[in-house]
Amino acid sequence: MSDHELRVSKIRNGTVIDHVPGGQALNVLAILGIDGTGGEQVSIGMNVPSDRLPAKDIVKVEGRELSQNEVDVLSLIAPDATINIVSEYDVVDKRRLDRPEYVKGVLACPNRNCITTDDEPVDSKFEVLDDEVRCVYCDTIIRDNLTEHIGN
Ligand SMILES: [Zn+2]
Q1: How far is the CA of 126 from the centre of ligand 1 (A)?
Q2: pTM of the model
Q3: Which of 23, 99, 131, 140 would bridge with 135, disulfide CB 3.0–4.6 Å?
Q4: What does this protein do (predicted)?
Q5: How far is the CA of 76 from the centre of ligand 1 (A)?
């Protein structure tokens, strides 16, 4: 087992999100809805040397897999991330991310009058464009500060 594999597979069962751009680890946790209050076991490596990125973050979450909605939003802030599924300390599956056409849930529409921000049980849905995402319900655009809108 290589050094690299040892580093990513130290959890027993769960998910290791590797090759996250340096400084984005906490945003990854926000996407997963993890704030420490749920008792999740999480370990984070920040600004770890990487051959593919100037510096990378690694997030390891014990006992948790990512939903497709979470993976989709993750791909917007960490397009080069790798998702490693770990079972009994082994990486059993490794996925790269595709840029989705739409992201659902996870992001909240900044428009207070948007139907998705009401009490109505309507999940947010954004169309993914080149440099921005657009709410399919009210056309509000989120461009630069995507991570401020995590938390639907
Ligand atoms: Zn909206």
Answers
A1: 8
A2: 0.87
A3: 140
A4: Involved in allosteric regulation of aspartate carbamoyltransferase.
A5: 18
Report the distance separating Cα 41 and Cα 104, nearest Å: 26
For the domain with range 102-149, which CATH number is right: 1.10.150.20, 3.10.450.350, 1.10.10.60, 2.30.30.20? Answer: 2.30.30.20
Predicted confidence (pLDDT) per residue in 78-131, tens digit: 999 999 999 999 999 999 999 999 999 999 999 999 999 877 788 999 999 999
Domain positions in the chain are 14-96, 102-149
Residue 147, classed as helix, strand or coil, is: helix
Largest CA distance in the chain: 53
Annotated binding site for Zn(2+): 109, 114, 135, 138
Q: Are 31 and 70 in contact (CB under 8 A)?
A: yes
CATH class of 14-96: alpha beta
